[in-house]
Structures
1.
Amino acid sequence: MILDGKALAATLRTETAQETAQFIQKTGVTPCLAAILVGDDPASQVYVRNKEIACQKAGIKSVLHKLPAETTQEELEALIDKLNADPEISGILCQLPLPKGLNETAILDRISPDKDVDAFHPENVGRILQGRPRFLPCTPAGIMELIRRNNIETKGKNAVVLGRSDIVGKPMAALLMQKGVDATVTVCHSRTSSLADVTRAAEILIVAIGKPKFVTADMVGDGAVVIDVGINRTESGLVGDVDFDAVKDKASAITPVPGGVGPLTIAMLLQNTLTAAKQQFASRN
Ligand SMILES: NC(=O)c1ccc[n+]([C@@H]2O[C@H](COP(=O)([O-])OP(=O)(O)OC[C@H]3O[C@@H](n4cnc5c(N)ncnc54)[C@H](OP(=O)(O)O)[C@@H]3O)[C@@H](O)[C@H]2O)c1
């Protein structure tokens, strides 16, 4: 089975658009995402543009703050403070990577946890781990939707997460181990020994390492569910971290790249922005 992330993302976005319309009708409040883009990295510009278009389609307002690469830490922090205090702004997103010289951790920590729709703030990461999230981490939450809506069983399954980044690997492992999801989780990284033995034992294998076609057929067990988070630009186009053509005959289900996990991330960002607006409205009323 090919796990179609593009189709699911369209469904999720339609659902969010409907919920947003209901929320606006009930409260008179339009959810609004503030995006901050520092410098002129072309890939970041495309990502931010796509997020703005997705907001528009869902009936969510978006405001872009485009700052020059020479922006200082103090200037960026002052903008974040202003957005934190602005009642019109539901969510704040600071596009990464930031130009050299800016302290990324300090900037992400500065965003109010109530408006942290990427769920990167340590308070939100802690809440995710404890199973009482304010917002769900976008890429891992998109993967959980893909798993659930394709009726893939997780309870008692051996799930292996390849990669331990703060954005994907760690929060993915946190979601899979929660009560109700109930997977038995192993996290692998660049120091893992006998990696292929570990990945071959996975009933659910989630790969986020940023190495084109790294996972080959001999690293995958028969009938495994394989989720490829990787987005790698190569001479032959966009490829994932999994050698799709070789692995697809062994896997019971697999995500393609593109059209797998990628489109789900933005869909979950929209959902988080609506959630932020709902939470802020409830706390004010
Ligand atoms: N679909 C989406 O929306 C989405 C979202 C985010 C990221 N991505 C893509 O997902 C990929 C991973 O992104 P990321 O931000 O999680 O990456 P990252 O921060 O670079 O982390 C990569 C992880 O992979 C591990 N790793 C690297 N080489 C390895 C090897 N040979 N064997 C075992 N582990 C290895 C690293 O181990 P160490 O910790 O030991 O160094 C690290 O934990 C990238 O292609 C990125 O573009 C896609």
2.
Amino acid sequence: MFYAKGKARLAKTPRVARYGRILAGNSTIDDVLLTYFPHGNSFTGEESLEINCHGNPLIVRQILNQLYLLGIEPAAPGEFSRRAVLNGKLNLHQAEAIREIIEARGERELQAARWMQDGHFRNELLQMRSSLFNLTADVTAELDFVEEDIEFSSNQNKINSLEAVLQYVQKLGERAEGGNLLHSGLQIAIIGAPNTGKSSLLNLLSGKEKAIVSDIPGTTRDYIEESIQIAGVPVTFVDTAGLRHNSEDVLEKTGMERSILKSREARFILVLLDGKKEPQLAIEESPLGSEFLKKLQLENKEHLKVLINKSDTLHADWPVDNSALPGLLQNLQVEYISVKTQANLPVLLQWLTESIDKTLGSESLLLASWQSDLLRQIEKELEAALVLLEANEAPEITATVLRNVLDLMGQITGEISNEDLLGRIFSRFCVGK
Ligand SMILES: Nc1nc2c(ncn2[C@@H]2O[C@H](COP(=O)(O)OP(=O)(O)OP(=O)(O)O)[C@@H](O)[C@H]2O)c(=O)[nH]1
Ligand SMILES: [Mg+2]
């Protein structure tokens, strides 16, 4: 079925792309490049052949059909990576990192995935396992000398080294939270009274005419989302329906309710006030000076910024003293911006970048659910071992718990393979990986 120009059959020159034609009977399917990889020198470690054809799915389908006629079977999701792991070409962490590299949504996530791929996380785990191994060895050795009451290291030393491992594992949980955010992204809600310029700000930040802007109060009826990257992280800005009390319009009210719910979910909040208006009025109308304050649950927000918009036509009574502002505002730094002239936009972006960095921390870790699950089990077992050590329990019980932890750690580093775990890991991969 393959015809190489000038040669009747494929020469098995390793890793050299050979140009030729795939035929079905006498008719041509496509002009292709074939590359042969001998045993031990391919991604999976197995003898393999790569076909580069034109991208039309019809052509791909026809070539696949020819291959199926030869008895070749399609790969299951993740089968290539699974075989690579089983043949020792990749470890589990590298396989997982490949999936993360493919699925990364932002530059920071990509960076974190490469860090995993380079084996840094696995090295951390191996180090931790080795210190736990020493501890287990000490406890186990003491078993032989129970009668003599010999200790290889003091109980306090053992407690200290176990606590260090436990703290490391607990910290991993926090780092993984940062990693989750790298993938899922952050929500930033833009809230305020009608006509303060929320939709204008969304459009400016996203660089798109996404939301309708008009000087009619109540233009935005439902929330509108748009995602961009800030500091290498996907963030979603949520433009919301302007909040006002005196609306009789059922649809507008529903839009406001939905917007409030959405704002509650958001980690970051930008509150816009209309700087064109007299300060007291602008504050009273804003959600900060009204009954909406409670509903929005703004007190719990770690990242909240108040923006006095329309600084290009700022009312003469601004700026106001902080003590004139409602309680929540008094401790906040207020920024004057103009969406129209883009005045102070860099200040806003700087604040967003810094707050995002603070939220994520510098050691964000991408953990797959199998890794998180194992870490949770490890944490529990370590806590149990600590209780046993602190109570100076019989060493055989402590040794059993510690050996269990070592086993779990071996699974997470990939040194102990477990069929169920492999199935769970690779079923989440896409076909062809
Ligand atoms: N002068 C000036 N006008 C602005 C500025 N930002 C927005 N506007 C104008 O303010 C009006 C309201 O803007 P929108 O972005 O629609 O306001 P909104 O907060 O989304 O309003 P609702 O959807 O009704 O809640 C429009 O006429 C904008 O052109 C600004 O910085 N300066
Ligand atoms: Mg709007």
3.
Amino acid sequence: MIRLISIVVLLALAALFIHCSSSNLHNPPEQQFRIGASTVGIQSVATHLNVPWQIAWGPDQQIWYTEQSGSISKVNPENGQIKHLLKLTDVFRDRTSGLLGMTLHPDFKAHPYVFINYTGYSKEKKRVSRVVRYNYEAAKDTLVNPMLFLEYPAWTSHFGSRIVIASDGKVMISTGDGAQDDNAQNINSPNGKILRYNLDGSIPADNPFKNNPVWAWGLRNPQGLVAVGNKVYCSEHGDATDDEVNLVKKGANYGWPVVEGYVNTDKEKLFARDSMVTEPLKAWTPTIAPAGMTYYASSKIPELKGSLLLTTLKGNSLRALKLNTTGTALVKDVSYFEKAFGRLRSVCVSPAGDIYVTTSNRDWNPNAVAGKNDDRILRIYLLDAKLVSASVKSAVVKPKTPIASNKGALLYTNYCASCHKEDGKGIPNVFPALAKAAIVAGPKAPMLQTVLNGRKQMPKFSFLNDKDLAILLTYVRHKFGQSGPVSDTDVKTARH
Ligand code: HEC
């Protein structure tokens, strides 16, 4: 009997040890990568999560996180122990809706507030986004006294929903346009905006429009927001082109849905002249699907110091966007860990300079591929020289050099493969196959119209010039339809 008990105790101890070991800083990393002269280790701090949407470093040295279905928890990064704080019961979750953004007040002692943003239904059965402010009660380690801070319209996508407390103590909220094109340019709609409030939910007297929470507008789906010194930056998803990072300025119009990315087409120039459009610090085409963003102020990993850290979903990477000394421009953009962990959604940095990111491989996106431990919170930390292995791979994946003769394949990879897949087989019931599709094998005109104008979930590609579109579509027709080429003139004619 005693023997049995001691075996059970031993097993329990072993289980405890195994549970704790994975996230302990003193243990060997699961993977390691080189960032310039630094080598970083990767450890899983939490596994098997249900789409962690936001992580935040707490004043209690714990990582607070939301999961899309409605729970708020925290994990001890030292030993992986999880404490569940709250399960919301009125969250409506489907593809991209649910419990999303969260922020803790940076001066938690004076203002023990936790703000969250989630989708639910109003009394009138309308879909809404809610921002709720909770009080943290330290003695009981729990969230109490929810106050409905804000309720605004929501549709079926484009929720934005990050929250930050700016250096002046104001609450800034990034809202999505709900995929309703009229919202972003309407300053009386809270959607497609950066909103600004006082901590009690009232509207600051120095907002650009009287009695209006709108601080900046013309945004599509801003899923990243960070305060750095007295500046605020947001990231946003473009449509088929032009994902952006913007420096958020008082009263600025970022142009959506008329201006995408920089002001460079005739239509955009005309609109920008009349409507004072502010250009992004950076725009990405092909798109990367930028999400959570934070700032790396630490010297721990010197290569990253002074950079905005941006997680990307489609891009499967963590980008470091180096700011100039005044914070008004980006001087460098390096993409790290591409495809190493899959889709990345949220990022935070500990005071010690360790970086934490969340994977989003169990979310709605049909391109998400979940590993057995997903979704995870990962630690990326400077590795002790003793633990560095001889053959560390670089965290920067060299881009495949385009082969000039295969420009069609490259354009297809950049613009079409994320949905229709490299092999043209698409995803059943989501993205139709192009391989052997009648429209690809048949006459050119219907295919040209589909690609130029878009259709339902497919964005329009009229921004590509005649020559590139001809090369791209010739490739698609040859490879997937065994049909004839498309010429520049075909494209030009189809535009009219
Ligand atoms: C964001 C995902 C997405 C991207 C990127 C995308 N498509 Fe599509 N595509 C779709 C969807 C969804 C449909 C089906 C639309 C519908 O329901 O009518 C579609 C339909 C099509 C069709 C019609 C298929 C048929 O059988 O009727 C063609 C042709 C096509 N896409 C070509 C392209 C090409 C070429 C590109 C790259 C330039 C591209 N698509 C990029 C999502 C995408």
